[in-house]
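sanity check this record:

:::
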Amino acid sequence: MKNITFLFFFLFILSIAGCDSLEDTFDDEIVDPDGLLTLEEINQQNFNLRTPVYDIAVAIDGDVDLPQDEILMLIDQEIEDFLNCQFFEGEDLGFDDFMLSNNEIITPLSDLRLYIVPFNFECDTQDRSICAGIYFSSTDSMAVAEEGFGRCGDLPLLKHEVAHRYGMLSNHSNQDEFAACSDPEDCGLIGFLDDLGIGG
C-alpha cells in the first residue's frame, strides 16, 4: 500500500512540474553531470568532421552513442528546421552573412565549430552551473550534449544554442522571440522514466 501511495504522489508531482523544473530539482540528486567544460577544452578538440549541408566543423566525443554520419546529418536537419521556423530567409540564411538587429554580422555556418558531448556537463554561464549546451560567441564555437536529463530527443539543445548565435542574448532576456523555434521538446512521463533508467 505504501508503494502505491508513493507512486501516485510521484505521478502527481510529475503532472504539475515541467521538465525544466524537474531538471533543476533532481539533476544533482539523480544524475551526475560530466565535468566542467570550458572554452579552452573545446578549443583543443580536433574539428575534422564536416556536416554535409552547411559544412560545419564538428568534433565528436568518443563516448557519444549515435553513429558519426547520423550526427552530422542530424545537425544540419535541426539547424534547417530552426532557420526555416525563425527567419523569413529560411534555411538559405545559413550560407550567407546575416546582420543582427544590433548590426553585428553573423558569418555563414561553415565558420561554426561544434563539439558534441555525451551528456549534461558542468559549465560556467550567466544563469546556471549545469548545461546541456553552451555557445561561445567570441570564437563562434559551441558544445551540445547528445542527450540531457529532463530533455527529450537527440541533441535537444542544439536549436537553443544556434538561437544564441543568431541573436538570443546570453541572459535569455529576449528568449521569447526565439522560443517557438528553439525550445527543446518537453519530456512526457515515459521520457522522464527513461532518463531515470526506469523506462523500457
